[in-house]
């Protein structure tokens, strides 16, 4: 581990079961669309594609409502039998990633982070998210659930304001 100032709080029993130990030390990222700089996600994780580990991307457990839209029909990936559907930035309309609609059995069995919303690295600008209590880099082991995450709701309001200008 590097000399980064990081914050990890005690996990609740529910979070410990839901989050594989190897993921709790990963930083949380805010992800912006590279095409229009709108906020796509405040709960991003740097990840690799399970079916092809040479492919780096970002994932999230649940993108903020209104930041992205599902587009076109779902289709099978070329690396496995997962069914996916492209997602586009709700502000500019560019394809920025995909949503795993139906994961295949091998992907579910492999060590995964449980995220089904993926963002292509070339389509997002990541920014490490800071813990508002300590100003250190926020880690997934300290991240509140999506319903308790204040950033999820403030991001929705900011995008609505930007959209209405």
What's the arrangement of secondary structure elements?
Blueprint: E1 6-7, H1 13-18, E2 29-33, E3 39-49, E4 52-60, E5 68-70, E6 75-76, E7 83-89, E8 95-102, H2 105-109, E9 117-120, E10 124-128, E11 137-138, H3 150-164
Parallel strand pairs: 1-11
Antiparallel strand pairs: 2-3, 2-10, 3-4, 4-9, 5-7, 6-7, 7-8, 8-9
What proportion strand? 35-45%
Overall outline: globular
Assign the CATH topology of one domain.
Metal Binding Protein, Guanine Nucleotide Exchange Factor, Chain A
Largest pleated sheet: 9 strands, antiparallel
What is the overall pLDDT average? 80
User: Which architecture of one domain does the CATH hierarchy give at level 2?
Assistant: Beta Complex
Spatial extent as radius of gyration: 16 Å
- State the total count of DSSP E strands: 11
CATH superfamily membership of one domain: Peptide methionine sulfoxide reductase
Question: Which secondary-structure class do the elements indicate?
Answer: alpha+beta
